[in-house]
Design brief:
This protein is of the alpha/beta class. The radius of gyration is 17 Å and the shape is globular. The structure holds 1,6-di-O-phosphono-beta-D-glucopyranose (B16) and magnesium ion (MG).
Length: 215
């Protein structure tokens, strides 16, 4: 029986990838290069500083000091937060609110397990904060996915055994993290990229609690 469901945020509950892309692109442009939306796919689920390293690599930019990199990431985050501060509940992905509510109605605990340090801002803008019993985000973990820390902390906060938790993730690193933590996984996206997940669906609008009992 399932004790808890732990949800990744970006790509599962809401799609903030387009805002991350706009803000990173603006930063890249100030540094004199550009990158594609296709390249941006590689940044999903990747922490802010690790994303910056990848982007600088694409632009062939070397030799920046840690201080300069921190300033760049901070600038990007300012542009990004300007955009997410304008988000509304209309941007919740199809079925997400309904599925989380159905978990709660069935006495299944719910948590967010996200790499984003902006998790609470986003949840508040979407008016979803009260639907989660715990929020573990980029501010509360030291080791990024695929390390299982974020999901293990989520399970602990919910008082659930890992083997009785289901993790919903759109990024391969997140699926790997959940497996490493001993949890069951539902991939949100395509079966090609999320091959290790126990099941893969296109979105939370396609998930039912009955489905979960058989994985
Ligand atoms: P921030 P998730 C991740 O969220 C995003 O997918 C990734 O693109 C982003 O770089 C990362 O959060 C950090 O976000 O700059 O807001 O701290 O998919 O783990 O919910
Ligand atoms: Mg994600």
């Amino acid at each position: 029986n399932i004790q808890a469901c732990i949800f990744d945020l970006d790509g599962v509950i809401v799609d903030t990838a387009v805002y991350h892309y706009k803000a990173w692109k603006r930063l890249a442009n100030t540094l004199g290069f550009d990158f594609t939306e296709h390249q941006n796919e590689q940044l999903k689920g990747v922490s802010r500083m690790a994303s910056l390293e990848l982007i600088l690599g694409w632009g062939g930019i070397n030799g920046k000091t840690e201080e300069e990199k921190l300033a760049m990431a901070t600038q990007k985050n300012e542009w990004y937060t300007e955009m997410i501060n304008k988000m509304t509940p209309a941007e919740i992905l199809p079925g997400a609110r309904e599925f989380v509510e159905s978990c709660r109605a069935a006495a299944i605990k719910t948590a967010i397990g996200s790499a984003s340090k902006n998790t609470l801002t986003i949840l508040n803008k979407l008016e979803l904060t009260p639907l989660f019993d715990a929020v573990i985000d980029g501010n509360s973990v030291n080791k990024p996915k695929p390390d299982p820390e974020v999901f293990i902390k989520g399970a602990e906060a919910l008082n659930a055994r890992p083997s009785q938790c289901i993790v919903f993730e759109d990024a391969m690193a997140g699926i790997e993290a959940a497996i490493a933590g001993g949890m069951k996984t539902v991939g949100i996206g395509s079966a090609d990229t999320l091959a290790l997940a126990d099941v893969v669906v296109t979105g939370l609008d396609k998930v039912t609690l009955e489905m979960l009992t058989s994985i």
